[in-house]
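Hello K.,

You asked for the raw outputs rather than the summary table, so here they are, unedited. I folded two proteins back to back in the same session to keep the settings identical. This is the first:
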Amino acid sequence: MHELKRRFNLHIGLQSPAKAAATARTIRLTLRPGSVPIGPVNGYKPEELKKQAYRIRLGGNGIEIIANASAGLFYGVQTLLQLIQEDNDKISLPQGEITDWPDLEMRMIYWDNAHKLERFAVMKREIRQASHYKINAIALKLEGHFQYKDAKPIVEPYAYTPAEYQELTDYAKRHHIDLIPFLDAPGHVSFILKHPEYAHLRAYPDNNYHFSAVNPEVDELLLKMYDNLIEANKGVKYIFLSTDEAYYVGKPENEQAKAKELGGNGRLWAHFVSRIANELRKKGREVFIWGEYPLRAEDIAYLPSHLINGVYDGGENDRTAALYKKQGIRQLIYASAQGMEPLFPTYYSYPPHKFVHGDSANTKLVTDDEMAQGDLKAGRVEGLLRTISTAIAQKKSDFLGTVIAAWGDSGLHPETFWLGYATGSAMGWNHQSVTAAELINRFYYSFYGPDITDINRAYQLLSAQAQFWKQSWDREPLKLRTPILGGWRGIDTLEDDEPMHPLDHTLSFLPVPSAGNLSLNKDWAAGNAERLKVAKEYLAQNNELLNLLHANIRSARPEGHYNLRVFLSIAQLCRQELNLLIDLERINSFLQLAAKLSSSDPLAAVALVDQALDQAKIIRNQRNKTYQSLVSVWYEDWFPRVLEANGRTYLDKVDDIKDHIPVRTVDMSYLIYRQLHYPLGQWAEETQKARNAFAAKNGLSQRTGSLNWKDAERLD
């Protein structure tokens, strides 16, 4: 009953059953196998679902929670916590009886620690939070954030020790959660193959994305890494072999013969997966995979029946669900709470603005990550409900449960994921007779408490601000990182087999005044009129958002405070970018007026150019203050992203196939990456040079100093 004290400041004393029976106003917990029958379910193993069933009796003098097993008793307590109603300093409960059980056995979430790592105590908090929403499995992706005994080169400056990982595993178990190790193979392994010690394991020598599917040393390394994880994860029966986006299986020259012998690239993929999974099975683990390209329907029969497929597709034209079932392979219903969105998930969707262009460039570099985002017009929660309810209604698979994913590839803070995690997992418990709006409102009350103000509006505004943040800059192929060495269709599908540059955010450059008369070759504001108009509308909305977040930080439950402070840091980052656009317009205005006055009043013209240069420094200072404030908030939860610590060094090399923005920088500056690479520093240098030439011509003083635009720490 620790949570009663923590959440509501209620102190509950323990009594013996005999004494409790004679005492009014008791909470009685009863564990009695077979005491709570369940009705029809969609789960494949009803006996497993019975273990999670419970009954609550709420009366005037006491509360009784009865369950068949400890898991059910735990979930009954979580429901009790969610039923408590608060009104000022008074708390109350409804009266009546509830009998409840899950529709599906497993409700997994994917926790992405590839590009950051939660502090140890914080990870425990996240586990506890997940258990409150009846989540009972967490697939934990750590990449180099675990201290592998047999793969030391990949271990990053901050990484959990085996003892810490076991402690987290045990802590999760006490909260009825399986903490499931997660490793990628054969694709998504640049965190391994970027290291020279493992370069010989690549499918292609110049590509760090993909393991060779025929090199026995790959199996040896993978199984050693899995052994290290399993040794630090005792008590869990599952493990995740993340096999998605294995683009190049069978395509390198040294794999083609084996693929042909087996019957195709999909068959070679199945052969690779079977080798690793069968060894993991021998170690006592049930193995999750992603049954994806290059696997074909006819290849499913070559997979071992003990696998669990984490990506169900029961579409109208799809026949794989039935084939998995025929093969004896159970499945999870995969649904995404976030995909490639920056800053904040698309819980509420808004149409693109008409000034947005450039998103269609380099379509060959659009990955199946992006293609799998689906239709987000209804928002993420509605999308989760449609996906899960449709899959269950199709009755094409023996479902183990659901997996709700939110990817860290865009560098979001996981506090932004809880609405999707909680509501999606609730659908795995019971998806019937519930709407997305009802689930959303239940989450708000449970997570933030009864005193919040228009929190749904805050989520709407955050969704809108994040989408405008993405849309407010143009996208063009730029050269801010090394080029992509292949596409999702294969390494040999690009035009002329040439590497291609990914899409980067950019804005049109400010005009530089001429040295002779400060004339300009364009009017920046005129070319961005619609963008600026919309930015000012979003700035007004940002005012509303900040007011809502500040109000709710004061009124939310204590456990919701940090979540809202993270949201506030995101809103402030969006605000700084909105102000940047408006300040660029202001700089353009100073330059335009300076050009007009250059012949009649050179002194005033130079003063206006100085104001433009001063405004650039104001932009830099505002950016740096906002950035540093955000980092201080996020680092309360995260270990620092650094090049060196604890005697270890991070190898700073990007993925050759995936353009994951957090990998572009060692530190947190990926959040302001596009600003740092906007050539405002170059503009300031060239403008100051032109200003000084014009000033010298007119007998006026020189300007010294520099903007230091790319210095994210500088404030002056």
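The second followed immediately with the same parameters:
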Amino acid sequence: MQKRRTLIKQVVAGGLGVALAGEALATPMSAPLKGRIRQSVCRWTYGHLSLDELCVVAKEIGLLAIDLVGPKEWHILKKHGLDSSMCNGAEISLTEGWNNPQYHATLIKNYTEHIELVSKAGYKNLIFFSGNRRGMDDETGLKNTVDGIKKIAGLAEQKGVVLQLELFNSKVDHKDYMADKSAWGIEMCKRIGSENVKLLYDIYHMQINEGDVIRTIKDHHQYFGHYHTAGVPGRHEIDETQELYYPAIMQAIVATGYTGYVAQEFLPTAADKIAALRDAVRRCDV
């Protein structure tokens, strides 16, 4: 309890807000995490908090990192002793990506710069996106993506940075997105043939587009370098209100020998959003 009181005093004294302290008070401390799953939280899903505030909450819960933070804010993570579990900022957009050669010159420039930045900061993962189809067939988009990524894969290998293509669903959230099936992303990885090009397997998105999550993880885990969570349907809390049972999914991930991060990426609906995050972390701590 003394540790908890000290945390809340620091939060308030540091100008991080009475509201945050109120939420923290409502979520009591519990036993340390097992830690077999290294967990983080996606910054954008807790946008009601500043990054400083989110870092305080993350550390208090036992998270090790924050996902989807760009270079301009890495100093905040470092101040709090947290990792950047998935770096961003090199992309043009979610819809304008590597499947279209007209963007390659800009993307190669951006990613060349960001690979250097990620490496110098001591981080590892950098996200990228296929982009939308816009009438393009899957094979053409696959070839274009492979051709483009091959131009920066060597630098990523040299700098110890892993480029991670995020898989999205195209049924609900990202209409027309090309990398909407794990098979497409796996084929991309095979053709590039680099251990520094992986897939960000978003469990929420892939449940919507193809299901069979645990079997896919067991059969193809070597291509998955990062995981995201969220409840289906709705992208909300990963509790009894939705169709996925995350403890079993996490057990499957652990069984593969995975040592990377799983990032919570649900949009909380609960009045106490910090309690919702703590609950999700506990459910995934298998």
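The two ends are 25 Å apart (CA to CA).

Happy to rerun anything if the numbers look odd on your end.

Regards,
P.
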